[in-house]
Amino acid sequence: MKKTNFSTRAYVMKNGQVMIRVRWNSKKNEVGFSVGYTIDPLKWDSDKQLVKSNTTHKIGGKIVYAREINNAIRSFLVCIEEVFAKYDLHSKTPTTTDLKELVNEKLGRIKQETVNEDKVKTLKDIFSEFLLLRPQEGNWGNKIHEKYDQMWTQLSSCDPNITLETLDQAKVQELVVWYIKNDYCNRTIQKQIRILKSFLRWVSRHGYTINSGVLEFKLRLKVIPRTVTFLKYKELMHFFHFEFPKEKEYLSKARDMFCFMAFTSLRYSDLAALRPVNIVDGCLDFCTEKTDDKLHIALNEHAQRIIDKYSWYKGDTIFPVPSNQKLNDYLKEAAKLAGLDREISQVYFKGNTRHEDTYKFWEQISCHDARRTFVCCSLALGIPASVVMSCTGHSDYATMKPYIEVADETQKIQIEKWNTHQYKSGIIESMEKMNSAQLKQLFEYVKSIT
Question: What is the pLDDT of residues 134-148, one digit of tens each?
């Protein structure tokens, strides 16, 4: 078997387009592949030939994360390696045309016009291709896969004969009307249209033609942001110290798991995967399951108490964490028993009709409320947003914004400064006029009431 020597190099062109160049046969042959992303050259790591970690890029009106672009680059490199390996088995060398066509074929980038007329792909075929290739490019989890499956089911329910040619602005508006008729709220419709556009942007990047105006379609529906649910500081500490009946020890465990996430900002996936090796010098040192971010989080006393409480557990992980669904079910029971019955109001629209649902906190509590609790309580305690972001892994304020709610408690803590300042300043002025005996008498009085 003859081994073909070749070299690959990823780089950013002057226009910001990411390219991969392949050279072989003593550099006589060369092929360039456009990765399909335009980035800021300052965010490019020329040594690693990848986008700098934890950077974000605005492409086509949406935020694209470094990991997505880097995964696309790696996908190209893997396909190039596979093509050369296949030819090496037969002691052959691919031509420039062979390499370009085979790599594009592996990546699903063959343009529609190059396919034989009797083999033209339907929109369903393209979607199936998308589900096969996109998870590899973006390191998807199962839940993201399910979101796109759901979007396709809804699109094909609206029009069972949908094609790429008939998917125009009018068809998207028809889809919106279908959602409203089927009792979807506007917030959900907005999310589903966003998922559809994400799929169509991928389709466009892979050589297919999208009808003009589809990607620029703007939803003309009233959408009110969802009320962010979280525990206020006093509620969190009440929940943390609440004594559950001995026969309901599973509720105590569920509470502890929630509070640990609320004290550290962890997601459920990171809590379940946390191992003893991730605790270093009083800090959590780990790589997140969802985003592959490397985080270093200092443990506060409350979080350390929970770790110490479960030191008896000898499993591979730090905690005996139940499944996500079971934990959410237990949390609702625990929160109800602990009296977390503050009422939450959610206002939303279905078409032009306003709706308002009111429920008690314990009815809707879930694992993810713990992460929001960490953000909101940290801000309420005066911890700078930059420090909070370093714990949550958010790369910029815009990405953390959905988690931030200016809580009543936060406002009260800050506004209370107006009230307390007048008294503090008055006390200080009076103290400056006191003699030693009076100051001693004041000190003894303050000591007796504190």
Answer: 876 666 666 677 889
Q: Report the C-alpha gap between 152 and 379 in whole angstroms.
A: 40
1 neighbors 91 (Cβ within 8 angstroms): yes
C-alpha 339/C-alpha 286 separation (Å) is 34
Domain coordinates in residue numbering, the chain: 6-107, 120-205, 233-405, 412-449
For 102, how many CA atoms within 13 A lie in the half-sphere containing its CB? Answer: 19
Cβ burial, residue 399 (10 Å; 0-12/13-18/19+): middle
Render pLDDT for 366-395 as a digit per residue (tens, 0 to 9). 999 999 999 888 887 878 888 888 888 877
In degrees and rounded to multiples of 5, residue 16 shows phi and psi of: 90, 0
Residues of the chain with pLDDT > 70, as a percent, come to 88
**Residue 112 binned pLDDT confidence (cut-offs 50, 70, 90):** very low
CA angle 220, 224, 228 (to 5 degrees): 150
Buried b (16+ CB within 10 A) or exposed e, 10-25: bebeeeeebebebebe
Contacts of 235 by beta carbon, 8 Å cutoff, 6+ apart = 340, 342, 361
The answer to whether 139 touches 71, Cβ cutoff 8 Å, is yes
Could you tell me which CATH class the domain 233-405 is placed in? mainly alpha
Tokens found for residue 54: 């934890």
Q: Pick from 30, 41, 108, 114: which is nearest to 75 by CA?
A: 108
Which helix (H) or strand (E) segment holds residue 8: the answer is: strand 6-12
Q: What is the pTM of this model?
A: 0.60
* Contact of 259 with 302, CB cutoff 8 Å: yes
